[in-house]
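Risk register update: the risk of archive-format incompatibility is retired. Evidence:
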Amino acid sequence: MRAGAFLGFFLSVATSIAAQTNVGVDIDEVVDNRVAMSGVVGQLELRVKLTGSGLDKASAARILVKDARDDRGTVLADGSDKPDFFPRDYNSGTLNFSVHQPARAASSVKLKGTVELYVPARDATAVVKVSKALSKLDAPFTASGLKAAKLNITPLSKTGYAEMMKSRKLDDKKIEEIRAEGKKHGVSEKEIEQLIGLAKAMEGLDSDPPDGSVILSGKKSDFDRIYRVEILGDDGKPMDTTGRSTSTRGDDSIMTIQPSQALPDNATLQFFIITDKSRLSFPFELKVPLP
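Archived output:
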């Protein structure tokens, strides 16, 4: 009976949050960089404010542009770009995004898309705590909450990290796979060589994480469903961090979190998972005059 009462209370809260949320989009700033010289192509950069009720319940938000066209008919976005969720407490709650540059003669742009809010309070399965998370390294987490979400995440030791970085090194086989994939999609030889050069340059940026860092590995598709990972201190509160980064090569990703203090014994990690119930979507349409 207690479990049923709690579930009823939770569903009531979740329904209330959804009913009280009504979101719109207002343009805050437009930066029009229409350039085309020496292979450099500009973008139309926009900053928007979210309006409406219920925004205080959201931990993060993002803008998904489904279609963008200037008044000359130029297609500026096709809906393929899916940015990460952005914390609501950054930049006074504004969101930045960009589309391709409009035609030189264009004077306005029409945008269609959705605002997505991440509201973990709407879903009890959206927040998962893993106690003693770093007690067994180089083996996937076995927490039931992560398993239920079908997330396969592994905490790495320094040795495990070094082995993974070694496996990601570009060799002749990987380079040939890049060439074959490029040709399969009709990419020119010049563009393929540029991609290989970029991959080698990115590889050169890899470095060992600082001592005391939390290192997590998994598939990119799994990390795409994780909004944030927090390290909880002995007081149960999130620890301050000096840096966070995620490195992706192909289908594999590595997340590195650098706490500002020494990790507590038996550290707990708290995962914020993007679930269907925790995500709210609101359509919008805008006509933006160009400066």
